Amino acid sequence: MCAIMQPTYLPWAGYFNLMQQVDQFVFLDDVQFEHQSWQTRNRILVHGSELQLVVPVQRCPLSTLISEVRIVGDDRWRAKHWGSLTAAYGKAPHGKEVLNLLEPIYSGVIPERLADLNESIITTIARALDIATPFLRGSQLGCGGTRSSHLVAICRATDSDEYLSPPGSHAYLMEDNFEALGNIKLNFQHYVPKVYQQHRTTDFTPRLSIVDVIANLGINGCVQYVRESE
């Protein structure tokens, strides 16, 4: 069974829950880039308030693939993001764990391409959470088709006879009659994240970046968190 997801920036826990359930995980980087999407942004919690971190990218035509999108060559955004992460989680119960995990990425050479940055962050966190699922890139598989037919082609290229999809894709997969396209069994993820105590707030803000989970529960606690749901 495989899962296929766009490489997003600092994704939420459900992304890793999907990943740990499958035999292969494919970064869907060979589809059209979407402005104002999770590909360039995510949310953290600073002193109880949501803050959106956005990676600036260079202007590009609407037809540009995710794999081709380039990050703006300016270190100010990186310093701003790292400053926000430090302010948000420096004094959290397990803040040092997540900051130590991400520091080599933010202090090192930032990749030119957005997909490379996102995949680096995702794979670093996944390995820290003891997720050993193999990673592949859609752009390296050379699969054709659009929408569901493209996903079916990727399943075939990875010798997968089952596909695990996030629930948000249910409508278009049903509309495209996914299973009839290639005799691939379609499964849907069922993940409802549990409430946990967040730093410096009595309220709970759901579906933040997974860095919030690690900062509050620790790596070991996060391992359990991405495997369970309410």
Sheet with the most strands? 3 strands, parallel
Number of helices: 9
Distance between the termini: 24 Å
Rg, Å, rounded: 18 Å
The residue ranges in which pLDDT falls below 50 over 5 or more consecutive positions are: none
Broad structural category: alpha/beta
Shape: globular
Percent of residues in helices: 40-55%
- Say how many strands there are: 7
Mean pLDDT: 96
Strands in their spatial order, largest beta sheet: 1-2-5
Write the H/E string, N to C.
EHEEEHHHEHHEHHEH
**Percent of residues in beta strands:** 5-15%
SSE arrangement:
Elements: E1 2-5, H1 13-19, E2 24-27, E3 41-46, E4 49-54, H2 76-89, H3 95-107, H4 114-128, E5 135-137, H5 138-141, H6 147-157, E6 162-165, H7 170-175, H8 178-182, E7 185-188, H9 210-227
Parallel strand pairs: 1-2, 2-5, 6-7
Antiparallel strand pairs: 3-4
Helix pairs in contact: 1-9, 2-3, 3-9
Short characterization:
By secondary structure, the protein is an alpha/beta fold.
Key features?
alpha/beta, 230 residues, 3-stranded parallel beta sheet, 9 helices, 7 strands, two-stranded antiparallel sheet
Structure description:
With 230 residues, the protein is of the alpha/beta class. Helices cover 40% and strands 13% of the residues. The protein is built from 9 helices and 7 strands, in the order βαβββαααβααβααβα. It has a 3-stranded parallel β-sheet, sandwiched between helices. Strands 3-4 form a two-stranded antiparallel ribbon. Helix 1 (13-19) links the parallel strand 1 (2-5) and strand 2. Helix 1 packs parallel to helix 9, helix 2 packs antiparallel against helix 3 and helix 3 (95-107) crosses helix 9. The model has no long low-confidence stretch (mean pLDDT 96).
